[in-house]
DUF2971 domain-containing protein
Amino acid sequence: MYVPQKNITLSDPDTVVWKYLDLSKFLDLLLCKKLFMARADKFEDQYEGTFSEPTYGEMKKIAQNNPEFLNRYKTHREKVVISSWHINEHESYAMWQIFTQNSEGLAIQSTIGRLQQALASETKYEQHIGAVNYIDYKKEFIPFDDIFFPFLFKRKSFQYEGELRIISDYTKYGKTINDGVKIDVDINSLIEKIYIHPKSENWYKNLVIQLMEQLGFNFTIEKSDLESDILI
């Protein structure tokens, strides 16, 4: 299922996506060979998985004769899990600032095609990929004829995120979800390149390289554009 954001072609497998994370989360990914997906209602944004005001008005009309209608959508957030990625042809200074701390952390560079290949390893649970649409929640309508639509819309205040989401609905599996779940992924398909925090010390860069080698991975490590030398 694809819900395209304006100017983003999700049918293009070469569209570049990024995931910014700290070293512990990166090592967990490599050690477990599993991708963590967070429960939708655990995100910092309290509007996550909710509807805009025009949509809610329509839903309340339906709920007058069907009281369980709204409750079903509220509890549904507890059964949906999400892995967030950043769509951008280039590195993002803002993403380094938001998702890493103390000049440490990494960025995984991948593509939509690689995500699709990597997710093929997970055969038990169904995954969907979609780009987030950023709208005015006071004026614009969110369709509610698809269970994933509430999770593919966010307020315009978050537009800087340029977010792509891997989403899974665990309702039909009868599985209890705490903070999230881990799903099987092909790590070598998932990761095209690694960027180490541009402000990190050499010892940290060497540590990342050494740990990857010890775990049997040989990913290409690119120098951050933010480290580029001044030409004058």
